[in-house]
Each structure stands twice: as C-alpha cells, then as structure tokens.
Amino acid sequence: MRVWRLCRRAHAAPNGEGARRYGGRWNQRGTALVYTSASASLAVLEYLVHLDPEDAPPDLILVRAHIAPAVVIRELRIAELPADWRSLPASDALARMGTSWARRLESAVLSVPSAVVPEERNYLLNPAHPRFREIAFGPARPFAFDPRMWKTRPRRRTRSSSSAPDPKSVAKVGGGSAALARRDDEE
Asked: What digits encode the pLDDT tens for the residues 72-106?
C-alpha cells in the first residue's frame, strides 16, 4: 500500500518527532506518530487546512511510502468515533484513542478517516512498533502549491448573482420579465 506525506524539509525524517512534541488530532504530546494520507492530493489538503496563503513554506517536500503487505493495519471507522470527531479544535477523545493505540503497539499502522474529506483515509504510522521498519520511505521531492490556489478571481456578474429583485416580488407589482429587463438596462 502506498501512502503520502507532505512536510517541510527539516521534518523529512519519518520519526514522528513533530507529533511527539506538539500532539495532533490523533495523538497526545509525548507520543510519536507519522501522519500520512492515502493520496498525494489528500496529503496536500491536510497540510493546506492549517495554512494562511502568506504562510506557505518554500521548503515543502512530498514523500511516498510503501507499507509492506505483511504489516497489519488497524482501521477506525467513523461509527467508532465520537460525534464531534471533525470538530476544531480536535476532540481530546481522538488524541486519547490514537495515543492508546500507539502505546499498546497493536499495529504499526492505524487507518483513520480524514476530517477534511471523511470518505478518504489518513494513515498514522507508529515508529515505536517493531514492524515500522517494514515501511519503506521513498525519496523526497520538492513540492510547491500551485499559485492558482491563492489566486482571487473577480466575481463575474451573472443573472443569479446580480442585484435584480426577486422575480416573485416583481410579479406582484405586475413587472414580470419586462421590468427586470428595464432594470438591467438602467444599471
């Protein structure tokens, strides 16, 4: 199975140190986890939701990892999660669940739903698990966000977004579509 990780170059080592230091949605401080996603695009979205456009780092890297077929993957389903699992800030219950899983060394990988796109999966890798070494990390490649992601577009004026009155209110005063046309010409 292939998973993806987007991070700054300084955090390229897949040791879970950042998660250990600061905690995350799925772990408490003190527990090392490596956060990865099922696709490169999901890894980008997961990173993007934490950024303001002016804060996009220039040294991002995208890393592919391969989880060997023999590595057990424990899956958490949405039905097993608290009702507020997508909340911001993240529920402490999720961090307790992930930390408990990591400490029990139940598996090297925990599959969890993405809070950004619940139909997609993120994969938490546990560097403390003996089978973690069976996860092969590929070479890092530089990554930059497409500038169109930050681009603001002028709003196009369309019939539905114009300042024309509601057709029902125009109809009440007998104006109908002719009144709308006159108003558009007057603007």
From this structure: 999 999 999 999 999 999 999 999 999 999 999 99
Rounded to 5 degrees, φ, ψ at 57 are -70, 145
Quick one: CA dihedral 12, 24, 33, 6, positive or negative? negative
Q: pTM to 2 decimals? A: 0.80
**Which of 45, 35, 105 lies closest to 74, judged by CA?**
105
Bridge partners (DSSP) listed for residue 61: 7, 142
Element (H, E) at 103: helix 92-104
Q: How many CB atoms lie within 10 A of CB 117?
A: 16
DSSP state of 24: B
Q: Residue written as tokens 């949605």? A: 25
Distance of CA 127 to the CA centre of its chain: 22
Q: Nearest-CA neighbor of 112 among 31, 173, 26?
A: 26
